[in-house]
Amino acid sequence: MAPLPVQKIMFAALKQLVSPMARRLVALAEVTPPLRKYVLAPIGQGRHRLSITAQAWNNNNRRPEFIAPITEMKAVKMGADILLNATIISLATLIYLYDHWSTASKEQHKKHVQDVRLLELKQSLSSFTEKVKQRSEQFREINEQLEKMEHNVRLLEKRRK
Predict the structure, then answer these.
(1) Is 83:43 a contact under the CB 8 Å cutoff?
(2) 72, 85, 109, 161: least CB-packed within 10 angstroms?
């Protein structure tokens, strides 16, 4: 995941891109009536109604009975700004989620690799322990044979005297 200052700088840069993009979207809406009439203007009018209602509630008043609509061009500008901001927030969210998923996947892979390594080490330790037991048994047998041989040598030495 990117450090917080880098994320802030990237977000500020994206916000700087919104203004020219919004102007281009408004210019496109001027020549494309369906975009202006069915997408951007309704978003802008909705934001205006929401803003007026929120101001009324903030002043402890009821919801206004009538909210005067704003001009179509002002609504289109607001709609373009909201649409682009929502797009940037969505992209930032997707980038964050991808980064989070990627980090989680890397950590999960790292844990899996560690688990496999731990299992290999346990098997190696078990194998080593088994070899030590075998060597210990062989050493014990050799030691017993040596003791028998020493005993036989002593017996022979006693007979010779």
Answers:
(1) yes
(2) 161
Q: Which pTM was predicted? A: 0.58
Which amino acid belongs to residue 106?
A: K
Q: What percent of the chain has pLDDT over 70?
A: 97
CA distance 136 to 143: 10
* Residue 84 · residue 21 · CB < 8 Å: yes
Q: How far is CA 45 from CA 12, 42, 69, 76, 95, in A?
A: 27, 5, 7, 8, 30
HEC per residue, 24-80:
HHHHHHHHCHHHHHHHHHHHHHHHHHHHHHHHHHHCCCCCCCCCCCCCHHHHHHHHH
Q: Provide the 8-state DSSP code for 6.
A: H
Using CB atoms within 10 Å of the CB of residue 18, give its burial: 0 to 12 exposed, 13 to 18 middle, 19+ buried. middle
More confidently predicted of 59 and 142: 142
